[in-house]
Amino acid sequence: MWRGIQRLGPFLALEPARRPEDAAERLWIVDGTLIPVRDRKVGASSRNYRFSANVQVIIDADPRLVVAAARPAPGNRADAQVWRSSGLPEQCRGVTVPGDGACINTGLIVPHRKRPGRPLLPGEEADNAEHRRVRARVEHTFARMKTYKVLRDCRQHGDGLHHTVQAVAHTHNLTLSA
Q1: Which of 18, 49, 116, 161 lies at 20 to 30 Å from 169 by C-alpha?
Q2: The domain containing residue 53 runs over which residues?
Q3: Does 171 map to a domain?
């Protein structure tokens, strides 16, 4: 399997995201996921007490296709820090992009937060409910991508993890397009 991914990985990698003409009307969703890795140069010990790598992925909300996937970062880094250093914010200019609550001060749309002693207003609760409903799409995409065993326990070294994520994202897109 490793030789196949190593040889074919760059060919299966996603092309750079093409910006649609109606980019201002599009809705992309961003999130990060932890992928367990064996390579200690790529991963770091994270919340799940395993060596993991944090991979940021952008999906198009309507067809649920993967638009872009960033290079992996060590798993002990926060999503906001990985997002800023991933190069993905430049691809999202002019597009509405919701993120999760961990992406505060990144330019993404995040849910309202409760402040000490002040409950959420009814309008803010409704906004958060809509935000959760939209963001569930990226979580479902991660669940579909992690059905591939290579992402449940990645044994790739060096750039192998990045090529593997790109190949799985491409396969995911092909499956949804068929």
Answers
A1: 49
A2: 2-112+122-177
A3: yes
